[in-house]
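Q: What structure does this chain adopt?
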Amino acid sequence: MTLLEVKDLKMYYEILGKGYVHAVDNIGFNLDKGETIGIVGESGCGKSSLAITLLRILPHNAKILGGEVLLNNTNILKMDMERFRKNIRWRRISMVFQGAMNALNPVIKVGDQIAEAIMIHKNVGKKYALKRARRLLKMVGIEPSRANNYPFEFSGGMRQRAMIAMALALNPDILIADEPTTALDVIVQAQILKLLKSLQRRLNLSIILISHDISMVAELSDKIAVMYAGQIVEYGDIKNVFLSPRHPYTMGLLSSVPNIKGKKRRLESIKGVPPNLLAPPKGCRFHPRCPLKIDICSEREPEIVSVNSNHLVKCHRYMESRRLMGLE
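A:
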């Protein structure tokens, strides 16, 4: 059953005197109950901008210019802000923000910060909210008594767990995890991913997992959306996209990840840099960096086309891309 459906979502940042940054440009995807979708791409491609657009926690210069976000067939972008704040944000959709040390207030105890989120959205007293905060900390593997500690008294992994506890305070349907393993060592990263998997099974959560690490996304996701320059360029079932990528950008991301089980191969980088989204390239936005580009790539923007029922791609040369990249 489809829980969340995003259709042609467009959000730009207005830069006075310069124009608009095309941060989220006609994005679309579906999320079912209990499912995880991974959103991957380089820094600056619009992943976090997509997340804050879904939660409508945008800076003053951000403009939602089109599209729909349907939660159980209700367009939540059309709700007035007060209703959205009370009924959707944190109750139905919550978020684990990137950089737990920056997201937590350093001078307020962790338990009080979790309790505050509960009291704002529910008509309960502080005693009940703190009790709930301690139960949440226990659920994510933190001793409940640590609710009396400040964030600087937690390790990086514990702060990330505390942020997950806060995001789950109101039993949301959808959890957005924005780079949940950033700045953590590999052992703690594995623990956080294991925790997310466990909580998803236990609570039947739907998760939007945002990361630049395509291998980490593969560990947790059912579907994947590859973003480049504000657009989704490849989207589908995790096995289809990983085992048979069609977009040269997706192939480049996969070539930059070591394969610990396969034969030795040289890691490849994607040449060039992402485009300036104040003035995106004409045609395919990846064409200035693409090894397969032909004249049409710089002249006409490709359509999203279906490779099969569980795999979409935005590329003029998707039919021959794997052969030309030496993957067939």
